[in-house]
């Protein structure tokens, strides 16, 4: 099957600022593809080009089989999009918002009303359907915005940081909704700065920086790129830290990190390395208060690959 989304060599400049510098993407049908990157990395510019809101300065892209420039008009009826902020009319009710979108898609009055009611039920908004949106909570507005993106039942959905500003419960609920959509065959391109979100939802992830992809793979493949497993140890005596560093250095496959009484050691052989480490420290009479083996997080992948810290509450607009 051809990819649902394909981009080759996309370039976009704003004066002297290069927002995209040869962006390449390929997204299979019926999958979630995550774009990770710091603010200004080019994520939103990529989405705007793929949704026909911007024209690239160079390169080309197709979505659902349509060229995003030459076939822009036909493509728009095959995609849905939800941006960083809910694009709903506060003065209309939830039902009226969705019915208006249906009419914009030329579905007709009766089909628009029927589709609106279906989506309000699907997103647990039936009780609020006839209330003005200005009284909706942030989570309700987000669900309504996503429902609006689905009015035309598009095969491809673009979600640009869809859970920004949501509390953990509302975020988890939206994750479940996205998973249900993909289970029915929808293709989703998701931009996010929340590492947990990408780990939970994305089948494949592209790490983007300075306008191009710097790493690509599944979450596990990206984690493997920075060294596999981590042994984490907590000792009871600060004087033992030097012994830990000296005796466990042969096990480490990267930089050993120390924070107060806590030591992190990148290793390759997982459980065997942990067993060896504990045996070595016992022989050296080092008292270990706590020990564990874990995989690296996507936060660590992100920091290693981009040199940037992730933000807990992303608010700035991406380029």
Q: Tell me the strand percentage band.
A: 25-35%
- Name the structural class: alpha/beta
Helix content: 25-40%
Q: Runs with pLDDT <50, length 5+?
A: 312-317
CATH topology of the largest domain: Rossmann fold
Q: How would you characterize the overall build of this protein?
A:
The protein is of the alpha/beta class and about 325 residues long. The protein folds into 2 domains: about 5-225, P-loop containing nucleotide triphosphate hydrolases (Rossmann fold, 3-Layer(aba) Sandwich); about 225-295, Alpha-Beta Plaits (2-Layer Sandwich), CATH 3.30.70.980. Helices cover about 35% and strands about 25% of the residues. The chain is built from 11 helices and 14 strands. The protein has helices at about 45-50, 70-75, 95-105, 110-120, 140-150, 170-185, 195-200, 220-225, 240-250, 270-285, 300-305, and strands at about 5-15, 15-25, 30-35, 60-65, 65, 80, 155-160, 185-190, 205-210, 210-215, 230-235, 255-260, 260-265, 290-295. The strands form 3 sheets. The protein has a 6-stranded mixed sheet, with helices on both faces. A 4-stranded antiparallel sheet has the order 2-1-4-5. Its main location: membrane.
């Amino acid at each position: 099957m051809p990819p649902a989304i394909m981009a080759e060599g996309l370039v976009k400049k704003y004066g002297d600022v290069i927002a995209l510098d040869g962006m390449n993407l390929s997204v299979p049908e019926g999958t979630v593809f995550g774009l990770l990157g710091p603010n200004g990395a080019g994520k939103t510019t990529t989405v705007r080009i793929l949704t026909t809101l911007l024209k690239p300065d160079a390169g080309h892209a197709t979505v659902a089989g349509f060229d995003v420039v030459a076939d822009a008009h036909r493509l728009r009826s095959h995609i849905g999009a939800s941006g960083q902020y809910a694009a709903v009319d506060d003065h209309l009710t939830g039902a009226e918002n969705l019915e208006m979108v249906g009419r914009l898609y030329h579905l007709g009055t009766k089909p628009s009303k029927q589709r609106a009611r279906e989506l309000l039920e699907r997103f647990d908004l039936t009780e609020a359907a006839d209330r003005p949106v200005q009284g909706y909570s942030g989570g309700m507005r987000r669900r309504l915005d996503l429902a609006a993106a689905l009015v035309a039942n598009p095969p491809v959905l673009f979600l640009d940081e869809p859970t920004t500003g949501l509390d953990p419960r509302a975020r988890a609920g939206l994750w479940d909704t996205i998973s249900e959509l993909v289970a029915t065959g929808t293709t989703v391109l998701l931009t996010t700065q929340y590492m947990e979100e990408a780990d939970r939802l994305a089948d494949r992830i592209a790490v983007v920086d300075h306008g191009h992809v710097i790493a690509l793979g599944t979450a596990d493949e990206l984690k493997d790129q920075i060294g596999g497993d981590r042994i984490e140890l907590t000792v009871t005596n600060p004087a033992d830290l030097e012994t830990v560093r000296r005796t466990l250095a042969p096990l480490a496959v990267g930089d050993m990190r120390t924070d107060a009484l806590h030591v992190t050691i990148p290793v390759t052989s997982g459980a065997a390395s942990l067993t060896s480490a504990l045996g070595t420290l016992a022989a050296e009479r080092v008292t270990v208060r706590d020990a564990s083996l874990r995989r690296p997080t996507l936060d660590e992948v992100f920091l290693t690959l981009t040199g940037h810290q992730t933000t807990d509450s992303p608010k700035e607009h991406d380029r």
